[in-house]
Amino acid sequence: METKLQKNWWRSAVVYQIYPRSFCDSNGDGIGDIPGIVSKLPYLKELGVDVIWLSPVYASPNCDNGYDISDYRAIHPDFGTMEDMDQLIREAGRMGIRILMDLVINHTSDRHEWFQKALANDPVYRDYYIFREGKADGSLPNNWGSFFAGDVWESAGDGTYYLHLFAPGQPDLNWHNPRVYEEVCDILRFWLDKGIAGFRCDVINVLYKNTLEDGKKQLALTGKEHYLSTDGTHDILQRLRRDVFSKYDCFTVGETVLVDTKTAMKLCGSNRGELDMVFGFEHMEADQIGVKWFKTPYHPKRLIDALDRWQREMEWNANYLENHDQPRSVSRFGDVCGYHKESAKMLCGLNLSLRGTPYIYEGEEIGMTNGDFSGLSEIQDVESHNVYKMMCDLHFPASVRDKLLLQTTRDNARTPMQWTDEKYAGFSEGEPWLKVNANHTWINVETQERDPDSILAFYRKMIAFRKNSDALKWGDYRKFPSVSGVYVFRRRTRLECLVIYANLTPHRKKAPIFLGTCLFGNYPEEGREEGWLRPYEFRILQK
Ligand code: TEU
Ligand code: CA
Hints:
It is built from 16 helices and 22 strands. By secondary structure, the protein is of the alpha/beta class.
């Protein structure tokens, strides 16, 4: 009933993701920074989180907002200095909060010293990356497609090309080269020696490319069969754990793209000695087909089925509904117009009652919504610009292009954190790097702190509830049959048995039998209709 896994501290931790550019700006330049984060530590402490996952703060030319690193041991001046970073680790630590760093090692920036030397034909560094000649007929070295649309080859200026699965400013490292492995181990130790909690490992299951042969032609990501979760990657992950991670009190969470539970278990099963947990994406596909740029109407059943499958088939999950790459969950799976509060609270309850380590993304705790952009000119995201260009090349009508763009742009999640109802939402004194959502006048931290019934208040209570519940932290999981759109499951240890009800729809729903005492929920008990759930109702019952 109870987990047979080791009860490591990071399993019962609640993680809060910060996108540093958008969290809090301390010096009025419109860009969030580390001193800004330090100033908000008391807020995070009160929320009840144990770990902060920091999206990249390293030196970077920002072609992909820091996911293109030019120096792994330096802080981008926009964010502050290494002293600021050390201070953040120290002050957070004093409050019992640890820092999880983002680890981007599939690629570096094209401005990284290694790549600059490689371009200059230094034989040592040339082999840190993947350079190839074009084919005899003058075409590119292979037919692979990029994660950001388009091909994966950029000219190196000397008649050769280099491989980039993401933007051209993100050349892929050559993981066949043992020197690359050694370099990365040194970087890991540099950070772990500072006392950080571990790493969130960016696109970690694409490191090792088996071959550079042409791939099977596909709508997107042609070539992926040659690099997704290969044996070479498993081997690297096992070595990293053995040589480095096992020597520290730390954990790793992999961002693993395009994996099902079977592959995910190979990447993080407790018998594997690889990662500690992974972010799956199958539940993020509840409103899309194949590629994330093509949206379909959202069906709660698809979300429930994917969550349930991962709950049943994984030993341990990294649970999340939002991050810096995804549209806002309340805009996607909730109802911003009719049931903003109710649906945001239900999503909170759901995310924090599932079995696994929960991750909350900045702003999710106040129900921040998708950005209110008018079009491409207000969007910064490199992926959106590439995809827009692809849609133009494919002659998509302008109205369709704009609709898809606004629904899927990653900037939806990257708008400045809404602290107050002031001009720049209390995020900055100066004009922010990305447009503040106009709804900050009513969706903001300050307003919600005054309201005991707010989404923020609910998050604080739900996190505290979870902390006090062994069933939620360690109990087993079982789904019960229910009507469509209603997710009912049990979390149980030998001493505690909870049944969770989540109505994922805007409709009243006939609920399966209610037995037991309601301990927690997002509606008052008064006026309850026996046997019915209200729109987006969430309840925890004790059996
Ligand atoms: O994202 C990996 C990535 O490819 C995502 O865009 C993924 O395709 C999508 O979320 C699945 O639907 C990581 C980082 O999170 C992202 O911000 C970076 O741009 C990317 O790697 C490259 O480093
Ligand atoms: Ca700043």
